[in-house]
Every structure is written in C-alpha cells, then in structure tokens.
Amino acid sequence: MKPPRQRAESGRLGTLTALYVTQYLGIGFITVGLTAILRDGGTSLDTLALLQAIGLIWPVKFLWAPLLDRYGSRRHGHYRSWLLVLQSGLVLALLALLPFPRPAEQLGPIVAICAVYVLLSATQDVAADAVAVRLLSTRARGTGNGIQVAASYLGNLLGGGACVIVYDRYGWAAAILLLAALTAVGLVVVWRFREPPRTDRVPGVGSAYRALWSAFGQPGCRWWTFVVVPLVYVGSGAAYALVTPALVDAGWSLARIGVVTGVVISVPAIVAGLVAGAGIGRSSRSAVLVFGGALLTLSVVLLLPLLRGDAPLTGTVVALSCFMAAYTVLNVVVYTVNMDYSRPATGGSDFTLFSSFGLICSFVAASLGLAAAGQVGYPAVGVGSAVLVAAGVLAGIRHQRRYGHQRRGDGAPATIPGTGPVPPPDAAREAAGSRA
C-alpha cells in the first residue's frame, strides 16, 4: 500500500490527466475532425484557414492569466472555482453545436461557438497549469508534464479521430454528445478535487501583471527562454512543417495522410510523453533532453527519403513515428523546466507566459521552414533543423549545469513584486500536508 504522500501525488496526477485530456478533446475535434467534416461538405480552403486561425487565441492567453492568479474563491478553492466554471463552459459550448447538424451550411454560428470554446479551453489550461505548479513536487514535474503532452495527443486522437468515426456512422448529434460526455468527465473530477487553502494570493491586479514580467528575472530564465527554447522549437517546428507538403508531393492521398499523421503516429507520441516524464523523474532534465535531441537527429536521417520525394509506406511511418516521439520528448523537457521557473503565487501566469512564447516560436518556425524549403529544398531544411535542435540541446545542457540546482523547490524562495518572499513549492506542499 502506498504511503499517504504518494497516494496524494497520484491523485493530483489523476486530476491533471482528466483536465488535460478533456481540454484537448474539443480542440482536436475543431482542428482535425470539424475541418474534415466541413471540407467534405464543400467548404473552401480559405474558410477552413479562418477556422484554424481561432487557435491563435492560445498563444495570447498570458494576457489574462494574471487575473486567474489574482482572483479566486477562498471557500471553493482558488483555482478549483475557476475550473468548475470553465469545465462547465466547455461542456455547454459543445452542446451549443447540437442545433447545427449541417455545419458547412451554418458556418457563422459554428465558427463563433468554436471561438468561445477555444477561449474557454485556453483559460482552463491556465488554471490547470497553476494547479500543477502548486501541487506537483519537483520530482513529479516530469511525470506531470509528460502526462500533459501525452494528453494533448490523446485528446486530439479522440476528438479528431474517434468522433469523426462516430459522425460518419451515427451522425452529428451522436458525435457532439460523445464529445460533451467525455468532457463532462473532467467536470466530475474537478468537483471531487479538494484544493489546499491558498495563503500567497497576489495583493492586486497591478502586482499580478508586474509579476508576469518579473518571471524573466530569475537566474538563468532568460537564457532558457530566449536561447534554448527558440533553438529547440524553431528547429523541430520547421522540420515538422515539411511533413504534410512533402507527403503530398510524394503522391500520398489526403485520406492516407490524415490517417497516418492524425492517428497512427499519435500512439508513439503518447507513449514517448509518458516515458519522457518518468525518465525526468528518475534521471535528469539534461539526460532526457540529450535523448530527445539524438532521437530527433535520427528521425531526420530516416525522413531524408521522404524529403527527397520517395515515401514508401512502412519506412515513412517509422520515420514519422520516430520524429513525433522525439518532438514529444523535447516538449516534455521544455515544459518541465518552464514549470521549474513558475512561482507558486503566480504559477498560472508564469507557466502560461513561458509556454506561450514556445507556441509563438512554433508558429514562426512553420513559416520559416516552408519558406526556406521553397528556396533550398526539403532535405536542406531538414538537416538545418537537426542542427538547430542540436545547438538547443547543447545550450540546454549548459543551462542545467549552471542553473539546474536553483530550480524552484531546490533553491531560495522566489519574490513577487509587492508580496515579499514566497516559499518554494515543495515547502508549500509540506505545509499543506494531507489537505491536497
């Protein structure tokens, strides 16, 4: 039988798993499933691009993240009160799609509802990340972020894959009701969740926003955020942007591309996320970072036939699976170090700020990768991407050697403008005891 502390940690991880999976269910449906349904109904590519643009809400969620850190119910739990409202909103937004069984003919309300859903989902992510920052021990952060990254793929797999199959066989209402029912599971989990009382609330909105920018003042934070993260994300993101156009150029059908990139390679990505998270807990952030970089280099080598225009099914699936596994491992390490730099009093704001910057780097990388491929070709961009990731790994190793021992929970207390010292998260958890 597990000791009480381990049982509490397992319960926290279970809660976070439900939150992260359910937040991505609708996102997967909107970006993959609904896109396919609309295209099948004759919707133009320009209109589909507008639907995809709704996702730009996610990178700017740091603009309102400080409000979640500042305001929250003392009676019902600071972040739990937000999660109850937001998770309910996700379910209601999905149910609001029910009256529109022919989405291709009713685009106006469909796009509006989807925009509301993405806004709610992005805000729910802020609250879920804040809970993770406050309740996960330093050792469990790798596992927690492995679950977060794996959950994104699982949510996309269910929302973008399973729900489309249900739609094809049973219709629009059945697919939407399945999405809403799965999302409601997260609401049940939040209802049962008991958040420890909070004693380090930021005193005002102004302090909350000043704290947002002071996060970069922590030792080594600027080096990690503005050197390591861009190198890793631009390198891997530029390579990933080549995959779909290279498959099209190699003669693959859209149906095959959808199945392989949306379903098949999601499975190794889910496994890689969980394995990477466990590996960080058992070894170190640097070791898993090196593994992810080496795996990505290998995957680029395996992808060279595709990038040259030759894409046999088995070899291409293996190469893409390897690439997605590597990309996932790197993501888990980046998220874990981001959480190391996230302070308990402003966990939602800090983690959101760091992850939003990573998302922006990924968006930029996609454009740069495709533009460069038009000039020098797919293979050159693929090799260049591997070089950038290797540089990011080396910079990350240097960062961890110099600053890794100062991770939150291991070093001195953080300071938030206007609040004074804030105890490290591990100390705060000890004070909370079994109330978590």
From TrEMBL:
SUPFAM superfamilies: MFS general substrate transporter. Pfam families: MFS_1. The chain crosses the membrane at residues 12-37, 49-67, 79-98, 110-137, 149-167, 173-191, 223-243, 255-280, 287-307, 313-339, 351-372, 378-397. Residues 1-198 form the Major facilitator superfamily (MFS) profile domain. It comes from the Bacteria. Its main location: membrane. This is MFS transporter.
